Amino acid sequence: MAKKIRRIGVMTSGGDSPGMNAAIRAVVRACAYYHTECIGFYRGYQGMIEGDYMEMNARSVQNIITRGGTILKSARSKEFLTKEGRQKAADNLKKAEVDAMILIGGDGTFRGGKIFNEEHHIPIIGVPGTIDNDINGTNYTIGFDTALNTVVEAIDKIRDTASSHNRLFFIEVMGRDAGFIALNSGIGAGAEEILIPEENLGLDRLLDSLERSRRSGKTSSIVVVSEGDKIGKNVFELAEYVKENLPDYDAKVTVLGHIQRGGSPSCFDRVLASRLCVRAVELLLDGQKNLMVGFVNNRVEACSLDQALKSKHKINKDLLRISDILST
Amino acid sequence: MAKKIRRIGVMTSGGDSPGMNAAIRAVVRACAYYHTECIGFYRGYQGMIEGDYMEMNARSVQNIITRGGTILKSARSKEFLTKEGRQKAADNLKKAEVDAMILIGGDGTFRGGKIFNEEHHIPIIGVPGTIDNDINGTNYTIGFDTALNTVVEAIDKIRDTASSHNRLFFIEVMGRDAGFIALNSGIGAGAEEILIPEENLGLDRLLDSLERSRRSGKTSSIVVVSEGDKIGKNVFELAEYVKENLPDYDAKVTVLGHIQRGGSPSCFDRVLASRLCVRAVELLLDGQKNLMVGFVNNRVEACSLDQALKSKHKINKDLLRISDILST
Amino acid sequence: MAKKIRRIGVMTSGGDSPGMNAAIRAVVRACAYYHTECIGFYRGYQGMIEGDYMEMNARSVQNIITRGGTILKSARSKEFLTKEGRQKAADNLKKAEVDAMILIGGDGTFRGGKIFNEEHHIPIIGVPGTIDNDINGTNYTIGFDTALNTVVEAIDKIRDTASSHNRLFFIEVMGRDAGFIALNSGIGAGAEEILIPEENLGLDRLLDSLERSRRSGKTSSIVVVSEGDKIGKNVFELAEYVKENLPDYDAKVTVLGHIQRGGSPSCFDRVLASRLCVRAVELLLDGQKNLMVGFVNNRVEACSLDQALKSKHKINKDLLRISDILST
Amino acid sequence: MAKKIRRIGVMTSGGDSPGMNAAIRAVVRACAYYHTECIGFYRGYQGMIEGDYMEMNARSVQNIITRGGTILKSARSKEFLTKEGRQKAADNLKKAEVDAMILIGGDGTFRGGKIFNEEHHIPIIGVPGTIDNDINGTNYTIGFDTALNTVVEAIDKIRDTASSHNRLFFIEVMGRDAGFIALNSGIGAGAEEILIPEENLGLDRLLDSLERSRRSGKTSSIVVVSEGDKIGKNVFELAEYVKENLPDYDAKVTVLGHIQRGGSPSCFDRVLASRLCVRAVELLLDGQKNLMVGFVNNRVEACSLDQALKSKHKINKDLLRISDILST
């Protein structure tokens, strides 16, 4: 029979994302509501290894729902990749009388959690917190929606100056292995072309499209490029290539970088984080474990960590078609 | 057999919402892509009655995806409620050689469209554009997500001053018949209480909750109130009532009003508008009619206008429970 | 000879304004830089009376520069208006070994500080923190610039919906006795008319102007109204009056309210707060007292509290002329 | 005697800046108010050379006050650097019956205007529109304030993620020859260090400061770097150098790039543009010429183009001291 859960630990791990604070708040408040103790570990697995934590009550998370980043900090822990590191973490949880953990992060975080659970049998629930939206078992990860708004606002600003100068801009957005950010922000910003890791349309097609776009009377062109696009050139080489082949264009590059991880979370991300984390606490109190909570078909649903990890969340390739139609 | 569609009309009607321009752009660009002509009627049904329209091509919608409001204007037409008015509109469509209409608006708009089609047999596709999210047959209406962000940003600002002065704020948001905005923005803004038209929890419960909240050490309280809440008092009377019964509180009122309808649309609303309207054009070209396109379970889907109109989109009452837990 | 200053107290008082946290941070950091102790009193004069304070060091103000409101809270203290209240405050300062005070607030705050100094001889420097910009001896008060941006962004949103519906909007902004916010935000938002407390142009002129505006082909009209305008009607009565006299107009009202006090401060307000408060600390350490620091002709300058209090900062009436010209 | 001015031309030239549209609007509306004709040339001097312009009336500038960029487009014209190019421009102005020109741009624009006037005697007024704030004869250029807010908002977002990971960020901002943006945004964003073209503090000082900052318990560090800083390394080399010498730091780089030129202008920039351009029109109508309008000591003032061009606007080095004190 499952041990009664009296004390839940929570941490954030991997790349931070907007809404992680809303998630922490929801875990802490749900624990308070269900008269369960809650402690927060700093810097993800590293804080578990070092026993670096604080006790949290409903007031410790006051007003953090509005803030980007994570008050518990985040890190990637090399030590946790070792058996010894995980043993230390398990010892610390025991000492701190933690009965279960809620892990807020991406697939690296969940992979670590799965091994940890196999070795030390501490119940775990994963909450998908990453701007990349590349987690199986949920339509949206916490932070994705805010990142899209950040990217679209940035491109809107660049569009102002691109239109004023009849320029072509290459804009690199995050997404090393997944084109979710590029695809959605590209459609949202009205980009002329979108390059993603999942599809290599080739350089000729890009040149054709830009040439057509110019002839159709467009006063500016925006190409959104995923960090991990498969075209075989980085964004600066790409811009050089286009300048050489389409000398009429004054091509510029902007790499949006880490502004995409920050900022006050959107309402969508705050509500998503709130709903997922209340459910995470309730699942643990209900004796469940080794699940990830997700938002699927407009409902909160849980799947096994295995399922969440077995493959990547696939992009909707129909969005490429939509983008083509709309950049007419 | 369905008549071939060579020319599509588009209009926006009812209360305007952010993303209507993105929707117009998607209709126009999809028409251009499919070599179909497109004309835009001004001020909804009124422009159809007056024959007030412009021919639109891919360039007429340049850079409007970023803008709030609607370049085609919107209105509520009394004349269209009469048989004569609708006859004039039909005559004008005939004169302008319009084979089908795409109507962007709320349920009033669709009701008008249904009667119009019954009388004049012009194929119609409805696109749900309203900040209220109260349309059956779609999980999200165009403009809802942006309105939520606008409300949450406004409440975040009010929270700054509320916290600085240990104050209680009643904030009225839009939603005469539906609590979608109040419920989601209330959770997103971390409101202590949320009052919606669909549920009357009573004044005693409100006083209790505020009293408990104060005793638990909260430095400020926010109550989000739908325009159409069922508590039997308007927001100013409500604040007076609370002041009388909880004299420790310095209660203030803010009515957010029309800022909720404006602003540059969020990425979510831009992508939603783009996807729904490309589909709307494709459905017409495919010989379909009298449908509404919606976003259901993370997919674009169409339902009959009848279905969209037969009942209201219901709020998820579980969100009230989430709000209760999180305002602990 | 002036007593050596070893410990400085700081507080915020009156209506809060964006940038007060940046001001607190600058006081605390400047104290740390000059090896002077610093304590922060909560809720303005009330915290001095109750001895409610905390010791502050460079780390206590980490990351607050970005946040609206004031971490020291603000209040209007009735008790401080009495001799007994002020005596208690003086006793508490003595007990806490505070040698001088920096008061961040408006003219009410400074008036209190002047009497306090006359009775208890504790050196005081005032820092103008209010969104109203109505303080003599400075061109800009801390929070004014942010409030203008908040108002202009709100009116931009309302303009979206006003333009979509060809509507007239009356928008009430803060400024009970001073038209600074109305005048500057009105010009910034391209308002058709601006009503301020300092000038009563009469109702006939307003009607004329709106009528002219409509005839000139404007698709929407915005009238910005100061809370304290002198036209003898509140904003709702004004809208009614216009509706009766100009029935073609669909007039609506929005009262912006407390969103104007909140929000992350603009860069201007952060730099202003930083510069004024570093100077405030340096003046105290230099043996100066009973001054207000201000930003005059693009330089930080100090004037006596008497001078700051002897009259109101006057609006630049030329701005009304500019507004007239631009709403052509 | 000066020829009567019946028709004024306006153009925007050089790098675009937020508020240029507000400036165009003010020129056009002031012309309308004074019953003077107005035409707008596209793409700066290039449009003058090509005779590419449009007639503008009060309605042509409707609602553009809110938008970034410039509806008249901007460009840098090589042809205008030649005598022949300038002759063509003069011929076109004559043909279009333009009696005087208002030039919105930076010092390159004004230098061109000065030569043009010397050769062709067409009265000219310059309006300082550039984000760089590097123009003599004005405390603020149009667009500078908005750019500062854009930079500060971007750094606030990066601070979220920097704090979550205890990281060091190097952030490159615009300003090839002038440190205005770096200096003000650096103070506004609470940067730990600011590197500007006007001052080379050396690499040792930077390392010392970062080391001290880390020891004092700071959880993140931000270094703001002007494009044109004089430290002899670009921002990527700088980050590498610091990583080698301070291995405890996880240093990252973000180049903000062209987002700094775009965005809806701040209230300050809209009011500034409005006031300067009304004055520009009035000066021309008053028979004045070859002046630049500026905002000096809180007043609109004009200086000769010569004076505006004879030296650069100097940064206030006291701000470096303020930054040092506040990053304690």
UniProtKB/TrEMBL annotation, chains A, B, C, D:
UniProt xrefs under InterPro entries: ATP_PFK (IPR022953), ATP_PFK_prok-type (IPR012003), PFKA_ATP_prok (IPR012828), Phosphofructokinase_CS (IPR015912), Phosphofructokinase_dom (IPR000023), PKF_sf (IPR035966)
E.C. no: 2.7.1.11
Reaction catalyzed: beta-D-fructose 6-phosphate + ATP = beta-D-fructose 1,6-bisphosphate + ADP + H(+)
Pathway(s) of this molecule: Carbohydrate degradation; glycolysis; D-glyceraldehyde 3-phosphate and glycerone phosphate from D-glucose: step 3/4
Annotated positions binding substrate: 130-132, 167, 174-176, 227, 252, 258-261
Keywords: Allosteric enzyme, ATP-binding, Cytoplasm, Glycolysis, Kinase, Magnesium, Metal-binding, Nucleotide-binding, Transferase
Subcellular location: Cytoplasm
Residues that, per the record, bind ADP: 25-29, 159, 190-192, 218-220
SUPFAM superfamilies referenced in this protein's UniProt entry, alphabetically: Phosphofructokinase
Residues involved in Mg(2+) binding: 107
Gene Ontology terms: cellular component: 6-phosphofructokinase complex
PROSITE patterns per record: PHOSPHOFRUCTOKINASE
Domain of life: Bacteria
Required cofactor(s): Mg(2+)
Subunit structure, interactors included: Homotetramer.
Family named by the database record: Belongs to the phosphofructokinase type A (PFKA) family. ATP-dependent PFK group I subfamily. Prokaryotic clade 'B1' sub-subfamily.
Function: Catalyzes the phosphorylation of D-fructose 6-phosphate to fructose 1,6-bisphosphate by ATP, the first committing step of glycolysis.
Record NCBIfam families: PFKA_ATP, PRK03202.1
Name of protein: ATP-dependent 6-phosphofructokinase
Gene source species: Gillisia limnaea (strain DSM 15749 / LMG 21470 / R-8282)
Recorded name of the encoding gene: pfkA
